[in-house]
Design goal:
Blueprint (H helix, E strand, L loop, with lengths): L1 H10 L2 H19 L2 H9 L4 H6 L5 H5 L4 H6 L5 H5 L1 H22 L6 H29 L5 H30 L1 H11 L1 H9 L18 H16 L5 H10 L2 H16 L4 H30 L1 H16 L1 H8 L3 H28 L6 H19 L3 H19 L1 H13 L8
Helix pairs in contact: 2-9, 2-10, 2-12, 3-15, 8-9, 8-11, 8-12, 10-11, 10-16, 14-20, 14-22, 15-21, 16-17, 16-19, 17-19, 17-22, 18-19, 18-21
Length: 425
Amino acid sequence: MSLLKNFLSVYTQPRILAILALGFSSGLPLALTASTLGVWLTTAGVSKSSIGLFAAISTPYALKFLWSPLVDALPFPILTRLFGRRRGWLLATQLALVVSLLMLGTADPAVNPWFTAFCALLVAICSASQDIVIDAYRVEILKPEQYGAGAAAIVLGYRFGMIASSALPLYIYATVGWQTTYALMAALMGIGILTVLLNREPEQSAVVETDSEKPGVSAWLRQHVVAPFADFMTRPHWLAILLFILLYKLGDAFMGVMTNPFLIGIGFTGPQIATVLKVYGVIATIIGSIFGGSMVFRLGITRTLWICGLAHMFTNLMFVLQARLGADLHFLTLSITLENISGGMGTAAFVAFMSSLTHVRFTATQYALLSSFAAFGRTWLSTPSGFVSEMLGWEGFFTFATLLALPGLATLWWLSRRSVFISNN
């Protein structure tokens, strides 16, 4: 009973609940430019090759570190004066998301795919910008002893947002149409807007420091771009480390772009996909992440990366069997459960690995750069997925995607032989 009281006392604090709601606002737009958009494109008759190219729309998430200093330092007209710097920028990005989602809902991919891509790109830019502000707001509004609970709240809220935007549309689009579906998703952004209005501006804002008495562009570049990169490049085998970051999750990213088109193509319905992938699948990912974190603690990063990488590679092969079996819902549930558990485990180990690479002086900057590099690689290296699926067929495609795990594991072997990983391995 006392354990439950302690849990409730931590996670029912107003600031933690605010972070939970902002996490929902952060996770909501992602699927609307990715998996949910993939279903829309498929139902509109867009070719698989074109659907694969739409993966490039998520590029802003990989490049958001480029404009984060501007969001951090510059006021937003009118809104900053009325609500403060953080809340002003939050409201600006959230209102921009509402408008861009409504625009995306009016698009017709079958008639004008370029306008659809443009609107989706606007959503991704606004969403990535919102994430920049939410991260800053979360750190500044919480006390140091609340950071752990705040991190858990933002992840949980993010998952809820992803479930809402990836599962709910698949249940309703056939009834109300895609325009109304995206309008309802835009309305759900009201949760984040209301959260900002009901909470106060942080008492202190982050101070941007430079190595010059007269801060300028060159000083900012030296402090926030050149110095972190220069420090990272002093690490032995840093190029091989970057190659590993690029390749470790490549097979997963390659498959992810075409999973929904594959499932629709072999006969599954939208509600079936929503139930299995977007509800059970997310729960399985959360369980896998928790288990993966425990493995890192007990076995170290290197062993966990090996175990999770191999497990995820072999569970991906289940999609080859799915292609042969067709719309077998029971086998799909088993496949998605095992694939997402192993994927969640691998993600936990991968994040721990990237965290171990950062220098204490550049922790935030180097992690942002490394994670952006990983996201950029996943985005652009997965764009040929549609062409490959058309060329090889579904069984050949998933076999090829499974084999894409081998270059990452080979790089992991090379790095392990040279004791690149941290000492707790």
